[in-house]
Amino acid sequence: MKMSSFLHQRPLHNVLTDPYESSSPKSSQNHQRPIITFLFNRTSLFLFLTLLIVFGILSPSIRTPLQGLVFFNNNSNDKVFETKWAGYTLAEATSFVAKNRTLIVCAVSEPYLPFLNNWLISISRQKHHAKVLVIAEDYATLFKVNRKWPGHAVLIPPALDSQSAHKFGSQGFFNFTSRRPRHLLQILELGYNVMYNDVDMVWLADPFPYLQGEHDVYFTDDMAAVKPLNHSHDLPPPGKKGRTYICSCMIYLRPTDGAKLVMKKWTEELQAQPWSKAKKANDQPAFNWALNKTAGQVDLYLLSQAAFPTGGLYFKNPTWVKETKGMHVIIHNNYITGFEKKIKRFKEYGLWLVDDYASESPLGRL
Q1: For burial by CB atoms within 10 Å, which of 23, 136, 275, 313 has the most?
Q2: Nearest-angstrom CA–CA distance, 165 and 171
Q3: pLDDT at residue 45, as a whole number
Q4: Kind of pairing, strands 193-197 and 246-253?
Q5: How many CA atoms lie within 13 A of 323 on its CB side?
Q6: Which is nearest to 200 in space by CA: 320, 304, 363, 337?
Q7: Hey, which residues does 2 pair with through a beta bridge?
Q8: CA–CA distance from 12 to each of 18, 43, 197 (Å)?
């Protein structure tokens, strides 16, 4: 029964009428009976308790004789909201977000939300934010993003401990990044093109014109050594450790057998090289081994260094930056660890956008 309908089903003057009223004069004793009757009348008591609840004096959780009524409770709305998004599937999310069968994907835990917002502002400026899907690694991120931007975050179980997932070199960080190839493979199996970015990146231009041809896997070099502007787009030769040094933080994949093979091999390499205290592994060496071991079976494409420079080049070689001015597309804030240090460097280069331009993000000011 709605509260409003109950409060109006009986006129108030009926409630206050003295049921013992007669034409004869009342004695002093009888004169007190309407007051006593009012205080103990079931209807009046109900109205009194209802008003206390409506105005927040009593908690709706307090049990009363009126247990058959269900009162409005904000917590129930939260539960409905959380249940809805906790059950949101990757298939539903990709179908909702994808444009022209293409997605831009990141994987985020709660401590990275400021970086997510910074990254989103830069993508919004290139008019590609509508196809961004945030893979939330914890429920706090899932709910915060979908409350601000419904449908653009999905959690692929199990959820991780957000506080242990952000320290580079930790087991939590390994657990976080090692899920990446499985997430991407699932999206490929659904038939979508997918661009993956780490959120410590900033877009300065539209990257899609650089994804030329119909290759299986596109990636960037993580070496800081300067390449000629017309460098080869083939997989570079292995380095001292017997493998290449390709960055696993900016990848574009087409839903081909070749791309799926690389994601499967990447997963296998991560399983073969798990994290330990002695060897604090991360996902990037395994990605390089996967590329090296499948190179003859997969069509690979190295993106332009000038357009997609590593942080070890962009932030540490001002001469090169000046010579390639106007060519930069996505800047990666790597070759440095720690939230505060990354933010400080972004600010020094005018790339920390959330303080002044939060309104340009689909999430607004978090």
Answers
A1: 136
A2: 8
A3: 55
A4: antiparallel
A5: 12
A6: 337
A7: none
A8: 12, 11, 64
- Find where tokens 């493998």 sit: 243
Q: For 82-360, which CATH superfamily applies?
A: Spore Coat Polysaccharide Biosynthesis Protein SpsA; Chain A (3.90.550.10)
Tell me the CB-side half-sphere exposure of residue 69, using CA atoms within 13 A: 21
CA dist 329 and 326 (Å) reads 8
* Cα dihedral sign, 323-226-174-170: negative
Q: Are 97 and 145 in contact (CB under 8 A)?
A: no
Closest CA to 141 of 173, 116, 124: 116
Task: Delimit the domains of the chain by residue range.
Answer: 20-72, 82-360
Q: Are 357 and 120 in contact (CB under 8 A)?
A: no
The pLDDT tens digits for 299-337 are 999 999 999 999 999 999 999 999 999 999 999 999 999
Buried b / exposed e along 91-123 (16+ C-beta atoms within 10 A): eebbeebbeeebbbbbbbbbbbbbbbbbbbbbb
Task: Report the chain's mean pLDDT, rounded to a whole number.
Answer: 82
Q: Where are the alpha helices (DSSP H) in the chain?
A: 3-7, 12-16, 28-40, 42-54, 74-86, 90-97, 113-124, 139-148, 171-177, 180-189, 257-272, 283-294, 311-314, 318-323, 339-348, 354-357
How is residue 283 written in tokens? Answer: 């996902």
Tokens of 246: 């390709």
Q: Which residues pair with 134 in a beta bridge?
A: 106, 153
Query: Are residues 100 and 353 in contact, defined by beta-carbon separation less than 8 angstroms?
Result: no
With 0.70 as the threshold, say if the pTM is over it: yes
For the segment 229-236, the average pLDDT, to the nearest whole number, is 97
pLDDT in tens, 35-44: 444 444 555 5
Model pLDDT for residues 182-221, shown as the tens digit of each residue:
999 999 999 999 999 999 999 999 999 999 999 999 999 9
Omega cis (within 30) before 111? no
- The encoded tokens of residue 214 equal 């119909």
Q: From residue 29, give the alpha-carbon distance in Å to each of 19, 21, 39, 238.
A: 15, 13, 16, 104
